[in-house]
Amino acid sequence: MADPLRLGIAGLGTVGAGVVKIIRQKQALLEARTGREIVISAVSARSRAKDRGVNLSSYAWEDDPVALATRDDVDVFVELVGGEDGPAKDATEAAINAGKDVVTANKAMLAMHGQTLAEMAEAAGRVIRFEAAVAGGIPVIKALTEGLAGNEVTRVMGVMNGSCNYILTRMESAGLTYEEVFAEADGLGYLEADPQLDVGGIDAAHKLAILSSIAFGTQVDFAGIALEGIENVTIEDINHAADMGFKIKLLGSAQLGARGLEQSMAPCLVPATSPLGQLDGGTNMVVLEGDQVGQIVLRGAGAGEGPTASAVLSDIVDIARGTRLPTFGQPATQLQKAKSAKSATPAPYYLRMSLEDKPGALAKVATALGDAGVSIDRMRQYDHADAATAPVLIVTHTVSADALNAALQALPGTGVISDTPVALRIEKV
Amino acid sequence: MADPLRLGIAGLGTVGAGVVKIIRQKQALLEARTGREIVISAVSARSRAKDRGVNLSSYAWEDDPVALATRDDVDVFVELVGGEDGPAKDATEAAINAGKDVVTANKAMLAMHGQTLAEMAEAAGRVIRFEAAVAGGIPVIKALTEGLAGNEVTRVMGVMNGSCNYILTRMESAGLTYEEVFAEADGLGYLEADPQLDVGGIDAAHKLAILSSIAFGTQVDFAGIALEGIENVTIEDINHAADMGFKIKLLGSAQLGARGLEQSMAPCLVPATSPLGQLDGGTNMVVLEGDQVGQIVLRGAGAGEGPTASAVLSDIVDIARGTRLPTFGQPATQLQKAKSAKSATPAPYYLRMSLEDKPGALAKVATALGDAGVSIDRMRQYDHADAATAPVLIVTHTVSADALNAALQALPGTGVISDTPVALRIEKV
After folding, report:
1. Which residue has the higher pLDDT, B386 or B378?
2. Catalytic: which of A89, A100, A107, A207?
3. pTM recorded for the entire structure
4. In chain B, which among 315-354 make CB contacts under 8 A with chain A?
5. What ipTM does the predicted assembly reach?
6. What are phi and psi of A91, to 5 degrees?
C-alpha cells in the first residue's frame, strides 16, 4: 500500500467541517477507492474554541493558514477559507512554494488570480484542483476538463447561483417583489455575508470565468464578462414572461467564435418547459456543448455542506489516486489571452414598456423597432384599465445586439413610452 | 514532452471511424490537453476494402484483432468490435497479457466478464476504461467513479437505451402501437442487429450492471437484474398513464440496502413533469444519488458516432494524462459478491384490468386488493361504451412486492376480471 496522503485543512466553516466528517466516517471506503489512507495532519481556522460538531483533537492546530500550508506533514493543502485575496491566496501560494498540491473551493481567488496561481503551480510541478468552486456537488469541472476532452467545446451555460434561482422562483410562486424575497432569503441565511456577491451575479460570474477558461483554452477573464445581477428583475416581468411561456433565470453563457469570446451573466428568458426553465429553488444546472458530444446537461445541488464537501473529496481522491493534470486542462503557459467579442451574438429579446394612451401609439413603437431592424415575433398589449399607460410586451425575432440597442435608443423619441423599456435576452436552450 | 501514446483500434464501424476522425482532426488540441502526441499505429476490422469516410492508409492493418492487440507499437488497445465473447474478449485478454491498457465501449463484455477481466488487468498493472459503454457521451462512469468518490452511493437510476425511449415516446406522440413503432424504428436503423438487445432491455441492463458494480463496490451481477423489456407496453397503458400524470419509461434502478442489492430494468411509470418523465426520443438520463451529494442528474445523447467517440476519447486522454484507477473504482479482488434482494422495495404501482359489466364488480376488486394489503390511492373506471368490459385503472399507495403479488394472484378469483391485470411500478423521481 502507498504512503498515507496527509491533508492540512484551512477553514472549518460548513464545508470544512463537512470534509473533516467525511474523512473520519468513510476511512475504509476512501482507502478502498484510493489504495491509500487519507489522514488529516493539521487544521486551521479563525477560532479554535468554536464547536463545529466534529472532534478535532487528534489534529495539530495552526492559527495561521500559511503555517499550516507549509508544514512538513502536509502533502495537500485544502483551502476552504475563501476570499479572492488575503489569507486564502497567501496560504495557497505558500503551499505551492513548499511543494504541496492544493484543493480549493475558492471561485473568487481562481477567477481573479487563476492564471498566476496555475503558472506557479505548474512550474513547481504541483496541481490545483477546484471541483467545489463551481456548481457545488455537480462534477462539472471533471466533466468538462476530462469527460469532454475529445471535444472542441462550443458553449457553456448554466444557472450557477442557487440563491438567485431561489429568489426568482420564489418571487414567481409566491407573487412577491424582489425586495420582499430578498429580505426573506437574507433572514434564512441563504445569502453571502456580502449579498451583492449573490444577487449582483458576481459569484456566478466567477464560476463562469473558470468554466470558460477550461472550455476554450483561454486565460480566466472575469473582467470580460458582461455582468448584470437580478436586482432589477421585477415581479411584473416574471409574470409577463410566464404568460408568454418563459421563466427568468440568472443565466451564464460563454461561447468562443469568430466574434471572439463572449461571456455573459445576466437575467435571461428561457422556455418554461426547458430543463433550465424547470429548475426551481436552489438547484444548479450546467449545460455543456461540444462538437462531438452535442449537449450534456448536469443538474444537482449547488451549495450546502454535503454537496460541496463531496466535490472537495473528489479532488482529494483524485490526488490520492495519482491523477495529475494542469489546472485548467492545458498548461497555463499555453492558455491564450481571451479576446472579448465586441457585441453579443444575435438572439431574440423580450421587451416590456409602458405605452401611453394616445392614438397610434402602438404603430409608432412598431415603426421605431422596424426602422432599427428589429422585427416582432409576438406582441401583447394589456388593458389600460384606469391607468394612463398600458404594459406592452414584445418578443422579437433574432436580432443583433446593435439593432436592439438602436431600437432601445429610438424608442423614447416616439413620445409614447412613459418609462425606460426593459430588454431581456431569450435563450432557447 | 512525453512519448507519444500509440493506439491500436479494432472495429471500424460508426464509433471506430469516429474515433479515428477525431484523432486526425484534433491532433493539436489533444496534444495541448495531454502533453503527448496521440497516434494510431494500427487498425483492424472485418473488411479492409470498405470505405469508412476516413483515410486509413498511414496505419498498419491487421485482419486479426488479437494480432493488433499484441503489436509492439501499440500502448493502448481500443476495442470497438463488440459482442460479449469472441474476438472482442480474445483480443482484450491478449492485450492485457501483452501489457497494454484497454479502452472499450463493450457493455456486454463487461457485464458478463467484467470481474474476470478487471482481475486480470489489475494483476498485470493495466487499466480497462469504458466510458463509452454506458450512456454514450454522458461522462457517467467518470462522475460515479471519480466525481462521487467521497460518497456512499445510495441509488443509481436511468433511462439508458435510446431506442426504447424513442419507441415509447413515439408511441405516445403518434398514438401508434408498439408493433407499428417497432417496425418504423427498425426501418430507420435505430435498433441493434438483434433488436431483442434493445427492446428486451438487455443492452440497458448491461449498463446498469456496470454502474451497480462501481456504485456499490460489488462484482458485476447481470444475472441478478430483474429484467423486463418493453414488448408488452401497450398504447393503452401509455395513454392511461398519461391521463393520470405519468409517462412510461424503461427504467433501470439499483440500490444497496439491508435487503441486499436490488437491481431492476423494467417499464415503470414516472411523473410526467419529472426530469425522467420529460426525456423524449433517443436521449439518455442517469440519476446518481449519494449520501453527501444528494441527487445528481446527467442528460445527453446515449448513442451515435460523435457522442460515443467523445467518450472513447475521454478514456484515451485520461490514459495519456497518466490517470490510472481500478476498473470498477476499487481493486477487483476487493469487490464483494452481490447478494440480491429477494423482493423489490415497496413502491406504489399502476394497475390496469378489464372489469366485466356485473353488479358489484368494482367492490369485489377493491375487496380483493384490500384483503391482500394493497390500499388504493386513486382509481378510474372508464365507460363500458358498447363493450362488455371496461378498463379500470388503479394507482396504489406504497405496497410491498409481496402484497402486490398476493393481490395479482387473488384478482382472477373475483370472477369479474376478463384479462390478466397489468402492474407497473411507479418511481417518484
Report:
1. B378
2. A207
3. 0.96
4. 316-318, 321-325, 329-331, 334
5. 0.95
6. -70, -35
